[in-house]
Amino acid sequence: MSKKKETQKQEEKINKSQTKTNHTEQEQHTSKPEQQVDDIPEVKEPQEVEATQESEPTQSTETPQNEKIGKENKETQPADEAQSKDKKCEEAIQDAQDEKELLKRQLEELNDKHLRLIAEYDNFRKRTLKEKMELSKSAGESVLLGLLPVIDDFDRALEHIDSAKDINAVKEGINLIYNKFQNFLKQQGVTEIETKEQEFDSETHEAVTKIPAPSEELKGKIIDCIQKGYKLNDKVIRYPKVVVGE
């Protein structure tokens, strides 16, 4: 009886294991159709297929063109910038060359003016020096021409002085010659410096000596003139030599 029970138990275990395997196989069979259903591609209607076929080529043709245009724009943009820079550089170079030519012309003009001014100044200097020399010669000539009549009068006086019987007439003739000579000097701008009883001035007088003044009024004044002095216009050409009272 015990052996029968054991065999029954073993059979029950085998049956249970078979039932489990059957259940698992059924589950696998049921799951596979679902997976196959999921893997089946969706069937589209004819209109949808045509629309997709029409839209797909346009997308494939438009996007490369847009990309090509974008690439061309990107490629042409640096080229345009480079051309504009080159143009600006060329304009700057041309402006610099024009300015250089202008400065060169101005420099040539200035050099020409400078050389002309130097030549004009040299000619002016030579002409002025020549005029001064001629003026000094002509001035001396005019002075000598003015003195000649005075010399002629002296010659005539000397010729008749030995045969003259009247001394007063000789004195009168000498005074006339002297006055004539004084007038000639005045015409030339030469004047005598006054000294008699004048206040002593060191800028116009030359004191030879000092003596006691004969009166209080003559103290510091000129008492006597040893040699006359003269001015040419306002310039002292010879100082008078005088005696001053103290």
Summarize the structure.
The chain is mainly alpha-helical and 246 residues long. The chain is 71% helix and 11% strand.
Structural description of this entry:
The protein has helices at residues 2-39, 46-161, 167-187, and strands at 190-192, 206-211, 222-227, 230-232, 235-238, 241-245. The chain has 246 residues and is mainly alpha-helical. It has a domain at 191-246: Roll (Nucleotide Exchange Factor Grpe, Chain A, domain 2). The strands form 2 sheets. A 3-stranded antiparallel sheet has the order 1-4-5. Strands 2-6-3 form a 3-stranded mixed sheet, with no helix packed on it. The relative contact order is 0.04.
Distance from N terminus to C terminus (CA atoms, Å) equals: 198 Å
Average pLDDT, to the nearest integer?
78
- Identify the strand order in the major beta sheet: 1-4-5
What does the radius of gyration come to? 71 Å
CATH class of the domain at 191-246 reads Mainly Beta
Instruction: Describe the main β-sheet briefly.
Output: 3 strands, antiparallel
The CATH architecture assignment of the domain at 191-246 turns out to be Roll
Helix count, per DSSP? 3
Strand content range: 5-15%
Number of DSSP-assigned strands:
6
CATH topology name of the domain at 191-246, in short, is Nucleotide Exchange Factor Grpe, Chain A, domain 2
Uncertain regions spanning at least 5 consecutive residues: 29-41, 46-62
Order of helices and strands: HHHEEEEEE
CATH superfamily of the domain at 191-246: Head domain of nucleotide exchange factor GrpE
Secondary-structure-derived class: mainly alpha
Label the overall shape. Answer: rod-shaped
**Proportion in helices:** over 70%
